[in-house]
């Protein structure tokens, strides 16, 4: 049963110039958020204080635990409970969502994250259940999907119970657009998928055995320049590992000189180290700040740890409560002045933190109760949140020393 509930955003269409000025100052602008929760895809506006629901597509049994948006109107959503990737129409200007998918197709089962290639003609899905990645041709503008290739992850699997099979957890594109780094939670490895052949051309082993790499990010890099580092959060042993990235003469990617820390600072060990499981990792464009979510800590609430890379050294900086439990995912606002998060359990489901642009510390800003997100039972709160700016010119054209640079508005 699919149902649509739409309220129009109370936003007048300000001129492009005004929009740009407001976003540039980055305070007080209303933002669109897309939220995935079990059985629901929701959109909210957020004015810095209050989350207001605008659209709601409900389909029992589905789980849109990852979504990605392609301008002007295509929202791609996984269903981690089936083989299906669905495409909805989403209009970021008025925050409306189509009641039914405009297209859907079956690939691997249990896909838990999606990423575009650089020109957004291909979509890569990471399958946790089948330990492979799906490569979709998404070049048609009508939103149709064509399964181009399924790439199984190579190599041995790890020693932990969750590692009986390979598990592709996330594919992230490097800033040059040359390859995706695929975190293999089952195989204790990072695999590099080349976008010119759609083949895995190199793999790096993650140690210690049983670490379970889950989500990672590149640090640095731009169009013509490889990133300096790749950093990954390992779920099973709650570790964060920073690697130097390099490329051999024959084009293979290498991860070197690992620096490994607990995802908890020395002062904040989890109450239950057995259940503790790192979740999300996001890295700022300032090439310094990294945030990792700590789930199932056994403490009253779970947490988000802040790390910094300083003179090439990975260091724990500080930690803050996630406001609830099982903070599965985190994302930056467009200009990185907020961090949004989702707690699958506890009272606060959808949370926003103010990010101090100077030292990178987070402070709690706003929260929406899981009861208001219609969490249908214990730990069935939201799994995913992402800001979708109304217009492409509200996405920084580039970053200089961690400061967003805004493009010129055409017309
Ligand atoms: C995907 O597979 C399921 C189960 O076999 C089927 O019911 C569904 O129609 C398929 N979806 C598409 C879009 O082909
Ligand atoms: C759908 O998922 C099942 C495993 O649940 C798998 O055997 C099958 O090959 C998948 N279908 C496609 C098109 O990949
Ligand atoms: C887009 O990028 C892919 C590689 O990611 C490449 O195969 C394709 O040719 C490119 N298409 C265009 C139109 O540039
Ligand atoms: C979590 O519990 C452990 C053990 O009681 C404690 O040492 C730690 O400081 C707690 N963490 C937080 C953030 O309160
Ligand atoms: C710690 O977590 C493990 C694994 O989930 C669980 O079996 C155990 O009961 C927990 N311990 C406490 C004290 O809650
Ligand atoms: C979304 O719609 C479903 C079905 O009508 C409803 O049960 C749920 O409360 C709605 N969620 C929100 C956040 O409004």
Present the secondary structure layout.
Blueprint: H1 16-25, E1 31-46, E2 51-63, E3 67-70, E4 74-78, E5 84-91, E6 96-97, E7 103-106, E8 111-116, E9 122-127, E10 132-137, E11 146-152, E12 168-173, E13 179-184, E14 189-194, E15 199-205, E16 213-219, E17 229-234, E18 239-247, E19 253-262, E20 277-283, E21 289-295, E22 303-310, E23 313-321, E24 325-332, E25 338-345, E26 348-355, E27 362-369, E28 384-387, E29 398-400, E30 403-405
Antiparallel strand pairs: 1-2, 1-28, 3-4, 4-5, 5-6, 5-7, 8-9, 9-10, 10-11, 12-13, 13-14, 14-15, 16-17, 17-18, 18-19, 20-21, 21-22, 22-23, 24-25, 25-26, 26-27, 29-30
This protein binds 2-acetamido-2-deoxy-beta-D-glucopyranose (6 copies).
One 2-acetamido-2-deoxy-beta-D-glucopyranose binds next to strand 7.
Describe the oligomeric state of these chains in a short phrase.
Answer: single chain
Content of β-strand: over 45%
Approximate helicity band: under 10%
Distance between the termini: 42 Å
Number of helices: 1
Report Rg: 20 Å
* Largest β sheet strand count, sense and barrel closure: 5 strands, antiparallel
**Broad shape:** globular
The small-molecule ligands in this entry are:
2-acetamido-2-deoxy-beta-D-glucopyranose
The average pLDDT is 91
- What's the total number of strands? 30
Instruction: Name the structural class.
Output: mainly beta
Low-confidence stretches: 1-28
Keywords: Signal
GO molecular function: 6-phosphogluconolactonase activity
Organism: Neoarthrinium moseri
Family: Belongs to the cycloisomerase 2 family.
Summary of the model, kept short:
This protein is mostly beta strands and 411 residues long. Strands 3, 4, 5, 6 and 7 form a 5-stranded antiparallel β-sheet that branches. The chain has a 4-stranded antiparallel β-sheet with strand order 8-9-10-11, with no helix packed on it. A 4-stranded antiparallel β-sheet has the order 12-13-14-15, with no helix packed on it. Strand 1 and strand 2 form a beta hairpin.
């Amino acid at each position: 049963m699919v149902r649509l509930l739409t309220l129009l955003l109370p936003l007048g269409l300000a001129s492009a110039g005004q929009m740009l000025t407001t976003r540039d100052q980055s305070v007080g602008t209303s933002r669109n958020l897309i939220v995935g929760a079990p059985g629901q895809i929701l959109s909210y506006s957020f004015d810095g204080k209050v989350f207001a629901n605008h659209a709601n597509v409900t389909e029992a049994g589905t789980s849109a635990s990852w979504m990605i948006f392609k301008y002007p109107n295509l929202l791609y959503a996984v269903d981690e409970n089936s083989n299906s990737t669905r495409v909805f129409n989403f209009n970021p200007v008025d925050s409306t969502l189509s009641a039914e998918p405009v297209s859907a197709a079956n690939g691997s089962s249990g896909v838990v994250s999606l990423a575009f290639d650089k020109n957004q003609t291909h979509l890569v899905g990471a399958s946790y259940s089948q330990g492979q990645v799906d490569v979709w041709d998404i070049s048609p503008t009508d939103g149709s999907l064509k399964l181009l290739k399924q790439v199984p992850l190579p190599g041995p699997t790890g020693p932990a119970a969750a590692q009986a099979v390979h598990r592709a957890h996330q594919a992230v594109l490097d800033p040059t657009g040359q390859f995706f780094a695929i975190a293999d939670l089952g195989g204790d490895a990072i695999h590099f998928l080349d976008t010119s052949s759609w083949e895995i051309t190199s793999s790096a082993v993650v140690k210690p055995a049983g670490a379970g790499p889950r989500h990672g990010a590149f640090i640095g890099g731009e169009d013509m320049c490889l990133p300096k580092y790749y950093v990954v959060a390992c779920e099973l042993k709650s570790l964060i590992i920073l690697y130097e990235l390099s490329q051999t003469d024959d084009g293979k990617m290498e991860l070197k000189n690992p620096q490994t820390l607990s995802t908890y600072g020395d002062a904040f060990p989890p109450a239950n180290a057995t259940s503790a499981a790192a979740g999300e990792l996001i890295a700022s464009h300032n090439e310094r700040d990294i945030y990792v979510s700590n789930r199932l800590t056994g403490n009253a609430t779970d947490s988000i740890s802040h790390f910094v890379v300083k003179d090439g050294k990975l260091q724990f900086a500080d930690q803050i409560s996630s406001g609830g439990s099982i903070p599965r995912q985190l994302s930056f606002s467009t200009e990185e002045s907020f961090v949004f998060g989702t707690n699958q359990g506890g009272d606060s489901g959808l949370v926003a933190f103010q990010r101090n642009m100077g030292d990178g510390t987070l402070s709690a800003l706003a929260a929406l109760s899981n009861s208001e997100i219609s969490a249908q039972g214990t730990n069935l709160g939201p799994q995913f949140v992402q800001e979708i700016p109304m217009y492409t010119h509200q996405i920084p054209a580039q970053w200089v020393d961690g400061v967003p640079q805004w493009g010129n508005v055409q017309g």
